[in-house]
């Protein structure tokens, strides 16, 4: 695909949503295109028609679906919920709802870029480490499905006290992220955190989860292999294959248009086909009925009662599992995930700005974005999702596919997440996915996350023996040290229970061990800025000048900071937009873009500049 080709998700009078470029960099209608914004069907400040916003918002929800569903399912076993799919569905609905709230906060008051917020894998490793402490290990009877009565008060208390502990740790650790963001400390930290710190940290988010993914896939390797094959087939081999789809337009009425179905929905299609295969194998009794037999977990009727038990509508609310509890071990462990999440989000902000044709985000927007993400983690913890929230890289990539950079589409996606969180049957449906199908999806997803971490090494000189040592040693120790501590925790006893728990959680969190060693070695072993990748890093994260365009994109809504709350004291706030003097002809921060159509169906600019 060229840099401007995209799936015609919904053609509006045939040409309104197309963006084809000839060999000289111009659109086929003869209009010249700029290097960035001309490649977009809708720019960040444009407002597509309401129905396009809804359809594209649903697409963003489906793009993030794999990650949103994966986090509660990974935590289910350590929360003693592996035999309680109904409660798993409640956790899935809660994370949908919390992600919707956090997305709307980020778009309106955060960095103001079209970035979806969702559950973070950065919190999974420290959460699993905390729940593996002797005090939080699940009793043996909860591991046996025949002994579990999901409605008994004893069982309910077993899983609720664990998730309350997670809630407290997430809420306290998120306060650190709020402080780092709104105080402007993130800019100071980025001076010392380079690619050689980021690469092992992000890679070790996924690498230690191979055991969980392998165990799930191992319940039926045939079904898991089928799921992996379909995901790879759709996302890699068929991604450029356009499928004719029926489209209704005002001029041509009902007609067909080509849509890159496999490129947009590879995970969803794979899950549905594998799910259908398991259903057929269940109906034909090709899979065993004995719960102890190999392949039983691939049956679709093992969790069939969940859909009937789940309510049609269920409103998640703060403290739904009880009052959160706090322990130092959990807080320090989650802080390691917070740091990883912050650094990754800063990279997402710059990537998103480039894709939607916006200027690089200024410092106040980055500070505000990190602060709002911390607030989002606080809310997600209060709601009891068992996880925090962060910017979703896969949805940033989706912007490059659809060529729609309007933040109103992400507003629609946030509203879709809220609705899906309230609609209880949706969460129940995803909780009934057969275990080997989940395992196959995890194997692909975790592999991609590990590769994303390693891709940060493109900025450093990997011909340097210094850099090879820093990365290799950090990765290896990040895997070896937690493995040893898990098997020999009694050898690290200090006699102080709380201190022992903190040490064990930190040293069994792979991403903390690898990231800390990468940070320490990269900042102490002599090396030039170019060799360490910091020169290129700084060029990518260069400061954006406070121009009218920057103020228009990253300013607060409804004139806050420009028309209202313009006190001279606000200039000392690191997250407040810089006040500039505008002319009468310049556009206010809260003005909407208006459009009209001529007889040929073309969109005409009325109030502000648009990128069509």
Automatic annotation (TrEMBL):
Its main location: membrane. GO terms for cellular component: plasma membrane. This is Solute carrier family 23 member 1-like. The keyword Nucleotide-binding does not apply. The keyword Transmembrane helix applies. Keywords: Membrane, Transmembrane, Transmembrane helix, Transport. Coiled coil: none annotated. It is found in: Membrane. Pfam families: Xan_ur_permease. The chain crosses the membrane at residues 49-76, 88-109, 169-198, 218-238, 259-283, 321-339, 409-431, 437-456, 468-485, 505-525. GO terms for molecular function: transmembrane transporter activity. InterPro entries: NCS2, Xan_ur_permease. It is a multi-pass membrane protein. Belongs to the nucleobase:cation symporter-2 (NCS2) (TC 2.A.40) family.
């Amino acid at each position: 695909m060229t840099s401007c080709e995209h799936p015609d998700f919904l053609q509006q009078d045939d040409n309104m949503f197309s963006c084809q470029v000839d060999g000289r960099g111009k659109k086929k209608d003869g209009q010249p295109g700029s290097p960035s914004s001309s490649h977009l069907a809708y720019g960040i400040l444009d407002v597509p028609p309401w129905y396009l916003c809804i359809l594209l918002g649903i697409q963003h929800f489906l793009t993030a679906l794999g990650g949103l569903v994966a986090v509660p399912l990974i935590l289910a076993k350590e929360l003693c919920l592996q035999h309680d799919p109904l409660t798993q569905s409640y956790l899935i609905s809660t994370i949908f709802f919390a992600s919707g709230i956090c997305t709307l906060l980020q778009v309106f008051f955060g960095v103001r870029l079209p970035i979806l917020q969702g559950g973070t894998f950065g919190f999974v490793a420290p959460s699993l480490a905390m729940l593996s402490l002797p005090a939080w290990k699940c009793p043996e009877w909860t591991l046996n499905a025949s002994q579990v009565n999901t409605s008994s008060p004893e069982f309910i208390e077993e899983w609720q006290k664990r998730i309350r502990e997670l809630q407290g740790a997430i809420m306290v650790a998120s306060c650190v992220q709020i402080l780092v963001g709104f105080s402007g400390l993130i800019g100071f930290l980025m001076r010392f955190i380079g690619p050689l710190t980021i690469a092992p940290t992000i890679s070790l988010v996924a690498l230690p989860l191979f055991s969980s993914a392998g165990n799930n896939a191992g319940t039926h390797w045939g079904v898991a292999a089928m799921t992996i094959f379909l995901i790879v087939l759709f996302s890699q081999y068929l991604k450029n294959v356009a499928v004719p789809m029926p489209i209704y337009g005002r001029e041509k009425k009902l007609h067909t248009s080509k849509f890159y179905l496999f490129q947009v929905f590879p995970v969803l299609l794979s899950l549905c086909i594998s799910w259908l295969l398991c259903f057929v194998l269940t109906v034909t009794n090709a899979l065993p009925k004995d719960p102890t037999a190999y392949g039983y977990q691939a049956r679709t009727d093992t969790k069939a009662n969940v859909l009937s038990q789940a309510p049609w509508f269920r409103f998640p609310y703060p403290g739904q599992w009880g009052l959160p509890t706090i322990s130092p071990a959990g807080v320090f462990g989650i802080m390691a995930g917070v740091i990883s999440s912050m650094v990754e989000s800063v990279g997402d902000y710059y990537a998103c700005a480039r894709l939607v044709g916006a200027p690089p985000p200024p410092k106040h927007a980055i500070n505000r974005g990190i602060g709002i993400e911390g607030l989002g983690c606080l809310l997600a913890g209060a709601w009891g999702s068992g996880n925090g929230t962060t910017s979703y890289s896969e949805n940033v990539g989706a912007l490059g596919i659809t060529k729609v950079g309007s933040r109103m589409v992400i507003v629609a996606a946030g509203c879709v997440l809220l609705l899906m969180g309230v609609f209880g049957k949706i969460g129940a449906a995803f909780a009934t996915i057969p275990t080997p199908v989940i395992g196959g999806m995890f194997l692909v997803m975790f592999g991609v996350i590990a590769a994303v971490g390693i891709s940060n090494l493109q900025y450093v000189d990997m011909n340097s023996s210094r850099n090879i040592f820093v990365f290799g040693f950090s990765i290896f120790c990040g895997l070896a040290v937690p493995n040893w501590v898990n098997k020999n925790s009694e050898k690290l006893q200090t006699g102080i229970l709380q201190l022992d728990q903190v040490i064990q959680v930190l040293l069994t969190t792979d991403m903390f061990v690898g990231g800390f060693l990468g940070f320490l070695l990269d900042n102490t072993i002599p090396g030039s800025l170019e060799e360490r990748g910091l020169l290129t890093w700084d060029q990518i994260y260069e400061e954006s000048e406070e121009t009218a365009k920057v103020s228009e994109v990253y300013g607060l809504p409804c004139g806050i900071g420009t028309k209202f709350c313009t006190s001279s004291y606000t200039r000392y706030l690191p997250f407040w937009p810089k006040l500039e003097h505008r002319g009468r002809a310049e556009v206010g921060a809260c003005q909407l873009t208006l459009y009209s159509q001529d007889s040929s169906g073309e969109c005409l600019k009325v109030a502000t500049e648009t990128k069509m």
